Queue: 3 jobs
Job 1
Amino acid sequence: MVTLIFLFSQSFGWNGLRAESGLRMNQAGAYGMAESDTLLILSDDLNQTASGVVTGGEFLASGGWKVSAKNAMIFYDLAAYISDGILEVTVSNFDPGLENTFNRHHVLSMYTNHWGEHHQVELLDTDWNLHTGFNYSNGVKLQAATYENNRDVVLPGDSLAWDIAQSYRLKFIWRGDSVQFFRNDTLFITNNHNHEFLLRYIFLGRDRTISGDYVTNYQNQQYPAMVGPVFSNLRVMKIITDSTLLAPQIKFLKVVRIYANAANLKWNLSEKGISRLIFRNVNSVDWHSTKYLGPPQQDFEYTIDHLAPGEHYEVKIIVKDEQGNTSSGVPIFFATRTSDYFLFKPIRDSFVEQAGIFGPTRDLANMGWLYLMVGNGRKIFMKFPPINSDSLAQRCVLRLHIRNEAGNSRSLRIYPVESAWSEDTVTWHSQPEIGDTAVAVLNKQEFSPETWVNFPIAINDGINNGLNVAITSSDSGWISFDSRESYFFQPELIIDYRTSYVFNGEIMNPRSHPISNVKVHIR
């Protein structure tokens, strides 16, 4: 049975029915709270199916999902960020002393971010993960990271023994800046940090972490799962600390910039929450939706692309809090420009890394699903779609949003890419050839996190074939940018075909049709 819904736990147990006594939250005083203090977020028995995205593994006739290969993984998106909560799962056929085949295996991983990669050079998120492997003396390791630090606690097999014939109930409790690990209601690890933990994404089996110090001989240089364990009865609960029945309210929603095929919107909430955009062409009954955008915040910005020129659109915002309460605001309407001013997001992007920068082996790794990083020993590759236009572009600006940086002022250069490359396979060793003449240069700039940087691109006749570039820097340190996989602030290529516009180096911000909350005539 699979449930992915917010339920009040004083009325419903972990299976969507009355709670069984063996699963009560106050069992043996382990948690010091009653069922009424929790809210069920996810319930997945893993019986012949899963509510997450399944890659490999095997569902057993007797119940449960078995990690039957090193690539086996189930990925869950809770569509919410849980700041105080409990995750518990039953695991059987589990004994690292018998099942380890590599120095490090990933068993169960919990993330704020959707990358699923805990070797984050930039340390912008929180994660906590259970590992096995030869490195941990037939035991387990709990790794927990919040922003500026990382802490590991190892429980060797001689201090916490495992029996492959037994079943174990594993529990993780996080409250504020602390995360704890229990086995069968016995506390073994408490890890304290300086920032609160937030859970949205869960990985059973492997995750997507890239090795920095081992040659794993595995896809994208990732760590393999430990083959053998059987998972069942996964539950995630929210600990209620401040009960409310009202989701944050939308204070304003406005369209900031309009293009022929896109629109940039900003909105503000009365308090922190997560949001998703739903939108439609007013001539259509079909609505489109983004994912829930987060982590929780009050100020949001998002650019909708793939719109049609000269059409009218309706947009609404849906807001949700941690307890599942939702609200929506008054829709707004806008019309796209006709044909002269376009915005495109990449169709592929990646960065590559030389050996010995973060770790000695990341030159073998592919980072095509991650954020983007550039610096000495790191390069970014980016490809935009071809443009269906016979006109000659007059101006072209590449916009990148900075996530984080390390170092002082630096120079960035953009070069055309002159050979084929794939987002899913490119590494330092297979990177494409780049041209000799830069199409954009920023010299000794100061870069700040959470800001945009604009690169005016030298126009050439081939821009309509799709911009294909590499971004390089020989300076020490690094800068990280949001990628096309980011929920916010994906890279933007803005192309202007107007001959009368005077470009002053700033981002172009034309207005076209009036924007208001009034109805539009539906043709």
Job 2
Amino acid sequence: MTCAAKPSSPGNSTLPSINVQLTPILDVVNYTGINGELAMGIQFASNETRLVLPLEMANAPSAQYTTETLEAWDRLGQLKLIQSDGTGLDSQPSRFWAVQRATQGPVTVRFKAKPRQTDPDAMVGPLFDIRANGDGLLGSTWALVPLPPDRTAEYQFSLSWNLKHPPQDAKAAWTWGEGPAPVTISGTSVKFLYTFWAVGSMSAYPGDSGSKPLSPDYSMYWLEQPPFYVDRPVSSKSTAHSRIGDLGPGALAGTLLARRS
């Protein structure tokens, strides 16, 4: 179950831009992965580390891209990426990519992620990984999107979904808003990455039956019917989210409830 909030602040056009578009992959009926495209209005020097992705978070594996599943281009053509593994700023084992030459113009990164294969013995913990759930996929942005390693720099982020090929009832939701149209926020990479998303044949509360939200900044989405009445826990969680929201912009965080299978 994913809880999404409205963006806490509009985009800031004076900041460098990082735009992400995600496209779910289907094999006729099943969601088998996600193609991602990352467009950055940022310049990089030769041999500068340009991207980082944690290899795991709380013992949950990330997409763990290689140079075969992650590629980059700029105005001059494809960029040669130098891949290395090490420890990230948050002390997590991480994978880094540097560019062999200085970049010119906007940089585009394309990546392909597959859901984690889980079983009853999978580690219990926060669902930071990417998983199949019901008729869709869910996970954390942290496990999916590689970003520049600077955690203090601010950017204008946008996240959108390409839902042209999935079933007509497909929806996409992210902590900061519902897709497929771009949802824009401004802030550091922490504000962008420490979020959750879901895509597929989802139900929502409030839905299309005229139900009213219990909080103007809060909605709920789920890929599988949970074993409780959705409108009852919404009230308490909505109140909690509203109180967290009083702490300041960006304090609302997504929560997730999914079957461990």
Job 3
Amino acid sequence: MTLAVSAPGYTDLSDASLVRTLSSALQQGAKADETLPASSQWSKPAEVLQLALEILASIGTSLQESMANSQGKAEEEANGDEAMEEDGEKAEAKDDDEDMDDSKMEGDDEGEEEEEEEDDDDDIGDIQADMEMVTGVDDDDADASDDLTTLSELVHKAVPEIMRLANSSTSPSDANLQAPALSALNNIAWSVACFDFTKDDNASILRTWAPAGKAIWENTICAVLAANTADVELASQVTSLAWAIARTLPGGRIPFQGEEHKKFMALYQASKTLDSKVGGADDKTNGQDEEQDPFQGLGVKCIGVLGQLALDPTPVALNREIGVFLITVVASLP
């Protein structure tokens, strides 16, 4: 998304530039807990940080759609170029046929001259085709670079700052920012998870995202799992994030520490009582029963993570352990 502002002092604004600004705000906000004058823009740093996280979460939500639309546009342009090339080839073939008929009528001498001219035209056409191929590759590379700019800014600028807030819970203000920080990471990760990384077209997205995905798994997911939290909302957010990250790191790229699957198995067992407690609290608060999405439950998310962890090239022992657990879950269903 790009917004052109014509007012003096403004240049083209885009999601990438906005991500840089918001990331800087997160970094500066961490230092704004000192005593500040009332007129300072950081007089309420927690509110500023929460707003920045919400905007980054919104950008993360639209990331997959904007990149998919960009890829679709590139495919349409490529198809259009192919159609134009086919039309051009047909037109050249038709001209060649007409020239051959004229050469037969005008005689051998004139025919030889026209054949030489046709050879020259073919040489020029070949040169033009070669130039189009060269310039076309350059254009595609430029388009791909533009498409990855926002993702690259999120990976290098925003994600480290969001992770810091997601991991910090030493003060009440930090604890209040943990949930929106995890939501922002969830939105970004699930947008990336929507891409099919078995396709070569998405290889550049995977290369850009992989370092951030690994860092989130090691520094955020594993840290929360190690804390053995009883907060069902926090557990649900982290499990959802783990599911998304596992989907974005195929082919053994997950920095598995060795015990994560046991944590998710334990969370699944605990989810049976945790979900019922949350449901009962919601009923008392709302005064009426509200139908909840069963696929948003903690147990379903745990199964999703375990399914991803069991995929090839997972070691046989880990695959067997997860497989036995999943079969037991299925066998216990009513």
